[in-house]
Every structure is written in structure tokens, then in C-alpha cells.
Design goal:
The protein is of the alpha+beta class. It folds into four domains: 2-100, Peptidase S8 propeptide/proteinase inhibitor I9 (Alpha-Beta Plaits, 2-Layer Sandwich); 103-412, Rossmann fold, CATH 3.40.50; 422-520, Immunoglobulins (Immunoglobulin-like, Sandwich), CATH 2.60.40.10; 524-677, Galactose-binding domain-like (Jelly Rolls), CATH 2.60.120.260. Strand 17 and strand 18 form a beta hairpin. Helix 6 runs parallel beside helix 9 (350-367). The longest helix has 18 residues, at 350-367.
Length: 678
């Protein structure tokens, strides 16, 4: 009865059009980009909703599958309302209604050259399948121009709904959703009023063999129109998460999401996990900042993060990168449909890369409609071509998507493709003897919850099962397991040794895990490194996690921009901290500068998440010194309290090392960089 009640509430919820028309603001205390007059809540008890309404807060929308609701609050009173409802004990959780931006880069006129198809071997894939009308790809965006001649043949129509009869025929909580749904303005018409969504839809499934100008990658699949974006380009949790849930519930096999936000939210994470549980693959844009810092929903384990490449198989200069990015796909100068019936040849950004990857996923499901979501994802990722970019090196975990290779690989994934797992990094790499939680990040671990083991010094430490495994005698627990990330509890009394992962009899490379009886702190090195000014400004970087892990004479080397600034701006990502369990953080740093003067000053900065979600807050200098001082010495400094201010919701530190060298031939060599916490 409770579920039915919530669905009925959804039918009669307040229209969202007016509420969603306002520009986002930076909230007064939490400093996140969010709606000025809406919040997301989970009520504390059954009577709480009525009590909240009696306080004057309207329920705009229920999301029963996830247990959340959207409330209307006075303009600009987001944080104040959250504090009030928590103080009264009426909500278990409450958050600002976070804003999302499109991940595209506007560009110039049409160039009728679909190079992306050839680079991803799509024509060869079409000899195997051109798609299947039973395979539906949901485009979660600003809507879709469903009258475009290239899209009309492939627009999904809800088979259970009779149009315009004013009845929710299939009892899904949406009246007359025959073409999808508009979660931005709360109505039945998902027509595009911006253009971004129509471009993405055309890349995926513009009709082929119809005499018009272009063909989508999966041109016999269908497009579900799920409008989550306003005409100004913004989306919010309150429209985004219900859109993800709707697409999964209505049978979409793939969701193409060319939107991103700065930080994760429990609501959207729950929505992505829900889609995965329904056998629906979420594919999302990695962002356009040329940084190693993760954005969301792409950064979630159960979403595929997509970077952008050029026609030369190079990383697009704007694209984000790092071990957290899963695959890459063409994202510069892409031919796409436009709102109003036209075309462009210059659609660009990770917004363009995402539908390219989504189209290939649709071809995979067309070949094997009953394949589990894990197999589709593994085929997409394992068949990708690793790209070692001459500027940035390997910039995604798996590589650039290849449609033909993916289709050839899929039939062999029953149940497992014989590839050896690979460990990229572990965090922390040093624990106290009392043990702790360790994240193992890499690839090829698989999704089978009964097929893997973690080894320490060749001995089986953990055998995975379908649920977290308590081992009272050993104190062990597997907390998480995915194809690229394992989180495991190391017990009190374990000994130092080589850590490896074994899957289906194949064993990974090894990483040293130290358990230190002389320290109570955990220690880790940055997992990902980048540098500003690589594209056209001359900055260079070589090395990463392995070079920063030990003082062994093998250093990370950074060279400055060669333009007027002569600046080194090193960008580092540190992962695997326990945000709720960190009381103090310090740094150990061994470095040397070459070719800098006595007056040059180095600045070590961390992003302060207490001032706002990235990038709306402040970078804070936590250490500075003359660059040519302390050469060959290990520097030690502590971060100002409270330690939690430096740690993101996901347990990340964002770090910058900035120095104006004054010399284009200067170098920064870092032989060791550890962050220690307890």
C-alpha cells in the first residue's frame, strides 16, 4: 500500500515548471551550485511528510524507488531549511538540489564527415549488426527533437500508453508518457528546447539507409526521450535522478548522459545503482576541464566514464583524464542532428564522446539482447584500444572504444574473457599493524561476485562472495568489488607483503602493502598526476604513482610552460581516504628544483571542500618554501585542522603544486610524495 500511495502522490505532485526556471545559486553555507528553492530529503518517519507540509514546505515530487522526495523552500533558504528540518528530527537525510551542466563545447558550421564511425570501426561492425528495434537507448538531456526526419523512424513510443487520454494506462505514475517524459518542467512533452539532446540522439541512432545526410552508430535501435535539462542547459538532482529511474523502469538498456556535476550526491548514486540493478548501463561524460579530478555521475563505479579523443586518436585538449576514466571515444568535430531539423559537423566535448560510446553499447545489446549488463560493459571496455598519448600518456583505464572488436569479443564473455587482472595503485599503501581499509584500483577484476581473491604474499587473504564477508577469526571483510575497484578490510595483525588479485586462476601484477608497527598513520601517494599548460603552452610531465611511491631515485619530472608565465602547476589526485575517520593529515615530500633562482617560491595547495564543492570553493596554500631550499631532504608538514575539510565525499584530496620558475628550462623532480592520515 505504501508504494501505491507514493505513486499516487507522484501523479498529483506540484508541477515543476516554475520552480525549475530559476538559475542555480551557490548555497550560503554548503557552497554548492544548486537550486535556490528546492531540497532533496528522506523523511525520518511516516508522519514526517505531513509535519513538514504543516511547516509550509510543499512536496514537489516523490521518487519512491529511491525513497527520496523533493521539497519547495523559500528562495535562498536552502541550507537554513535543511538545518531546521534536521533539528526537528523530520528528515533522515537532506541535501541541496544540486545543479548539473552540459559537457559540450560549442563549435562551428557543418562538415559532413563522420570520421568517428571509421575511427571506432563502426562500418565493419555494421556487417554484424546495425542495431535492433527492441534495444532502446535513453537520452537523458535537454530533450530530443522527435520531429527531426533523421530521428522520427527510431523514436521510442511507450507501448503501454494511449496518447492524450488523460490516463496513466500502464500505472507507472506518469500520465500520457507515450513519447517519454519531461522531468525538467514536469509534463508529458520531452521536446528539445536547447539542441544539446538532439545532437546526442543523432550520434546514437539517426536513421540509416534513408537518403538523408547521416547515420547513427546504432541506426536500427530506438531513442527514448527523457528530458532532464532546462532550456538554459542546467539540470538538477530532482529531475536527473527520477529520469535515470524512469529510463531503467521503462526498459532502456543504455542511458547516455552528457551532463556532469562537481561532486557526488547520495540520490544520484542511488539512481545509478538502481539502473545497474535493472540491467541498464549508464554511460556518462568525464568532463571538459583537462584535469585528473573526478566528476559525477561519470565517477560512480556503476557508470562508464567517457573521455574525448580527436581524429588522430589523441586526447582532446579539453577532456578530463585519469585512472578513474573508463574509456574514450571521438569527441571533436562530430556530425550530429540539430534542433529544428538541421545538422552540425562541429559538435564537440565529452558530451559528444558519450553518445558515441552509448551507440556502441547499443550494438552490443543488439547482438545479444539477453546478455547481462556486466558482459556488455566488459565487452565495451576490454575491447577498447589503449591509447598512449604523446602529451599525457595513457589517459583512460581501458582505451578508445572499438565497435567491431567489441562485437567480436562479446560472444566469448560467457562467463569470462581470459585476461589477467592489473593493479594500477593501492591506497593506502602503508597501514598501522592494527590494519584498516585498502582500495585496490586497476582493471580486469570482473563483476562475478564468486570468482575472485585477494592475495598477500601469495596466500589467499580474501575470497569474494555475493555479499560482504565477515571473517571473525581473521577480521576480514570485502566491502566492494567491481571490475576496476576492490575495497577490502585488512585485519589486525596482518604482515607486510606483496598484494595481488587473482580472478579465474589468473593473477595480477603486485603492489607492496606495508604494515608498520612504528606508526599509527595510513600513507598513500597520489594516484593520478597532471599539469596545466600542456596544449600549446609547452608544459611537460613524466611519471606518476610509481615515481611518487618511494624515494628510489626514479622521480616524477615536471617542466614549466614556455610562454610568458614560465609556471609549473602540477595537479594531483589522492584517493582512498576515509572522510569520516580522518582526524589529522600530514605530508612527506622529497623534491628538487633545477634551474630556479633563490627568490622563487613554491606553493603547495589543497582544495578546501568546506568552502564549496569543486570548483566553487577555494584552493588554500598549506605549505610554501623557497624552491631551491631543502634539496634532497624529506619535507614534513601538517594540514590545518579540521582534516575533513580537505577530503571530498568520496575520500579524495585535490592537490596543486604551483611555482613560477622564471625559466623555461627549469624542472621539478619529485622522488616521493606521501599523504599520511589517522
Amino acid at each position: 500500500m505504501r508504494r501505491l500511495f507514493l505513486l499516487i502522490l507522484l501523479l498529483f505532485c506540484v508541477p515543476l515548471g516554475a520552480e525549475h526556471s530559476k538559475e542555480p545559486i551557490l548555497t550560503s553555507q554548503t557552497r554548492v551550485l544548486a537550486s535556490p528553492d528546492r531540497i532533496i530529503v528522506r523523511f525520518a518517519h511516516p508522519a514526517a511528510q505531513k509535519a513538514v507540509q504543516q511547516l509550509g514546505y510543499r512536496t514537489l515530487r516523490q521518487i519512491p524507488q529511491l525513497g527520496y522526495a523533493v521539497l519547495n523552500v523559500p528562495y535562498g533558504q536552502v541550507d537554513e531549511t535543511i538545518a531546521l528540518l534536521k533539528a526537528k528530527g523530520l528528515v533522515r537525510e537532506a541535501y541541496p538540489d544540486r545543479a548539473y551542466r552540459m559537457a559540450y563545447i560549442p563549435n562551428d558550421p557543418l562538415v559532413p564527415n563522420q570520421w568517428n564511425l571509421f575511427r571506432m570501426n563502426v562500418p565493419a561492425a555494421w556487417d554484424i549488426t546495425q542495431g535492433n528495434q527492441d534495444v532502446v537507448v535513453a537520452v537523458l538531456d535537454t530533450g530530443v527533437d522527435y520531429t527531426h526526419l533523421e530521428l522520427v523512424p527510431n523514436i521510442w513510443r511507450n507501448p503501454g500508453e494511449i496518447p492524450e487520454n488523460g490516463i496513466d494506462d500502464e500505472h507507472n505514475g506518469f500520465v500520457d508518457d507515450d513519447l517519454g517524459w519531461d522531468f525538467a518542467y514536469g509534463d508529458r512533452d520531452p521536446m528539445d528546447d536547447h539542441g544539446h539532446g538532439t545532437a546526442c540522439a543523432g550520434i546514437i541512432a539517426a536513421a540509416g539507409d534513408n537518403g538523408y545526410q547521416m547515420a547513427g552508430i546504432a541506426y536500427r535501435c530506438r531513442i527514448m526521450c527523457v528530458k532532464i535539462g532546462l532550456s538554459n542547459g542546467y539540470s538538477y538532482d530532482s529531475m536527473f535522478a527520477p529520469g535515470v529511474v524512469y529510463a531503467a523502469d521503462m526498459g532502456a538498456k543504455v542511458q547516455s548522459i552528457s551532463y556532469f556535476s562537481d561532486d557526488l550526491t547520495p540520490l544520484l548514486r542511488a539512481a545509478v545503482d538502481y539502473a545497474w540493478s535493472k540491467g541498464c548501463l549508464v554511460i556518462a561524460a568525464a568532463g571538459n576541464f583537462d584535469e585528473p579530478y573526478p566528476i559525477y555521475p561519470a565517477g560512480y563505479d556503476k557508470a562508464v566514464a567517457v573521455a574525448a579523443t580527436t581524429s588522430a586518436d589523441r586526447k582532446a585538449s579539453f577532456s578530463n583524464y585519469g585512472t578513474w576514466v573508463d574509456v574514450s571515444a571521438p569527441g571533436v568535430g562530430i556530425v550530429a542532428t540539430t534542433w529544428g531539423g538541421g545538422y552540425t559537423g562541429r559538435f564537440a566535448g565529452t558530451s559528444a564522446a558519450t553518445p558515441n560510446a552509448a551507440g556502441v553499447a547499443a550494438l552490443l545489446w543488439s547482438l545479444q539482447p539477453n546478455a547481462p549488463v556486466q558482459s556488455i560493459r566488459m565487452a565495451l571496455e576490454y575491447s577498447s584500444l589503449p591509447l598512449n598519448d604523446p602529451v599525457v600518456g595513457y589517459f583512460s583505464n581501458y582505451g578508445r572504444v572499438d565497435a567491431w572488436s567489441a562485437l567480436r569479443l562479446l560472444p566469448s564473455l560467457n562467463p569470462w574473457y581470459p585476461t589477467s587482472p592489473t593493479i594500477h595503485w593501492i591506497s593506502p599503501h602503508r597501514l598501522p599493524v592494527t590494519g584498516g581499509v585498502v582500495t585496490i584500483f586497476g582493471r580486469g577484476f570482473g563483476w562475478d561476485a564468486n570468482a575472485g581473491a585477494v592475495l598477500l604474499q601469495g596466500r589467499q587473504l580474501v575470497t569474494l562472495s555475493s555479499r560482504p564477508v565477515p571473517r571473525p577469526r581473521q577480521g576480514l571483510r570485502v566491502l566492494e568489488w567491481s571490475d576496476s575497484r576492490i575495497v577490502v578490510q585488512v585485519p589486525n595483525g596482518a604482515i607486510s607483503g606483496w598484494l595481488q588479485v587473482r580472478v579465474h586462476g589468473r593473477t595480477s601484477n603486485r603492489r607492496w602493502l606495508a604494515l608498520d608497527p612504528s606508526s599509527t598513520a595510513c600513507a598513500t601517494a597520489p594516484s593520478d598526476a597532471g599539469i596545466a599548460g600542456r596544449y600549446g603552452q609547452g608544459a611537460q610531465l613524466s611519471g606518476g604513482y610509481a615515481e611518487l611511491l618511494e624515494a628510489d631515485g626514479k622521480a616524477l619530472v615536471a617542466r614549466p610552460r614556455t610562454d610568458n608565465s614560465k609556471t609549473i602547476e602540477l595537479r594531483l589526485l589522492v584517493r582512498g581516504l576515509d572522510r569520516n575517520g580522518v582526524s589529522s593529515i600530514s605530508c612527506e615530500y622529497l623534491r628538487q628544483y633545477v634551474g630556479v633562482g633563490d627568490s622563487v617560491v613554491e606553493s603547495v595547495q589543497l582544495y578546501d571542500f568546506s568552502t564549496g564543492s569543486y570548483p566553487y570553493g577555494v584552493w588554500v596554500e598549506v605549505y610554501s618554501a623557497r624552491a631551491n631550499a631543502h634539496a634532497g631532504e624529506t619535507l614534513r608538514f601538517s594540514l590545518p585542522a579540521p582534516a575533513s575539510r580537505w577530503v571530498s565525499y568520496e575520500g579524495d584530496l585535490f592537490v596543486r603544486i604551483v611555482v613560477n620558475t622564471g625559466n623555461a628550462d627549469a624542472r621539478l623532480l619529485i622522488d616521493k610524495l606521501w599523504f599520511l592520515w589517522q
